[in-house]
Amino acid sequence: MQVLVIEASTSAAKAMAYDDEKGVLAAESEVYDPKTDKGGVHDAALVYETCLRLGQKAAAGRDIAAVACVGVWHSVLACDGAMSPASDAYLWNFTGADAICRAIREDSEKAAGIYRRTGCMPNITYQPYSILYLKDNGFDTRGKFFSSQGGYNFFNLTGERIETKSMVSGMGLLNTRRLVYDEGIMELCGVAPEQFGELADYRAVRPLLPKPAKMLGVPPGIPVVPAHSDGALNQVGNGCMKKGRMTFSVGTSAAIRLSTDVPTLSDPPGTWCYVGVKGWLAGAATNGACSCVNWFKDTVF
To answer: Would you call 59 exposed, middle or buried from its count of C-beta atoms within 10 A (0-12, 13-18, 19+)?
Structure first.
């Protein structure tokens, strides 16, 4: 079976054709141009278009039987009723919400409560604070839908608003024990769960629409797997989903991720805990990894 994977990463779009017997058949990657990536703020439509263009290259001449979506763990954009972008997509490396997060952390009890429920400390990494940033800058959230970049890509491929619990947990929006949108976070942001996609897992496949199928050069109606994060799928690709197995990955950021069978938090708060493809992942990260190497190359050379 051959699968086409399309990924909207932090600094580049990627696509891969994969055969379950032969392995990787083709891989494509393209760094976003300045129109697409404006320092942690992405043009969601351009990201999607780039992913499809690379997907077409990777799929060319192959018998693709399914499509899988991948995205960064931490991104959010607002859409209108037709799911057209009403804002840019704000990623984990957007720093505009720093003052908002610092103000929330000054109330240590409130911050600890958010951490205990969501597995995420109030930090610019997470998307509730990007939503608050938008509101503080005059954006009207009424009548808007919110989506991860991966969820936006999935909608354009299938016409359905679905977010995986894994993706939403890494956005800081999920109650990691009850596996529902966290009521406290919804109240903090002044939004409702209905403004976000239906929560599901990898089994919630939907048929590929004719228009994107034509753009990709693959058959319409083949199953599309809803978006999971690059970090969660890194655990799958390395065969480390069993309890006690850890991975270390280096990309734009660098992270260690430990597979657990229950939500695992630190006391005092210092690590994060997200829902994985199966089970949970406890970990820690540094925002400066390959991005620091690129900065040095661009600045010094």
So the answer is: buried
Separation CA 56–CA 33 (nearest Å):
19
Say yes or no to pLDDT of 285 above 90: no
> 181 and 121 in contact (C-beta within 8 Å)?
no
CB 154 within 8 A of CB 228: no
Alpha carbons within 13 angstroms on the beta-carbon side of residue 268 total: 3
52/208 Cα distance (integer angstroms): 13
Does residue 207 contact residue 222 with C-beta atoms inside 8 Å?
yes
Beta bridge partners of 256: 248, 284
Residues contacting residue 275 through CB under 8 Å, at least 6 positions apart: 165, 166, 168, 169, 170, 174, 176, 179, 281
SS3 187: helix
Residues 6+ apart with CB under 8 A from 93: 10, 39, 40, 252, 253, 287, 291
214: its two tokens = 């034509």
Token pair listed for 225 = 């797997």
Query: Cα(94)–Cα(135) distance, rounded to whole angstroms?
Result: 15
Q: Which residues contact 131 (CB under 8 A, 6 or more apart)?
A: 76, 141, 146, 189, 191
Threshold 0.90, pTM exceeds:
yes
Domains parsed from the chain with CATH numbers: 2-230 (3.30.420.40)
* DSSP E strands, 9-120: 12-19, 23-31, 41-42, 64-71, 75-79, 89-91
- The pLDDT tens digits of the residues spanning 180-216 come to 999 999 999 999 999 999 999 999 999 999 999 999 9
Query: 265, 118 in Cβ contact below 8 A?
Result: no
Q: What's the first-to-final CA gap in the chain, in angstroms? A: 45
Query: CA 40 to CA 92: how far, in whole Å?
Result: 7
Alpha-carbon distance of 173 to 116, in angstroms, equals 12
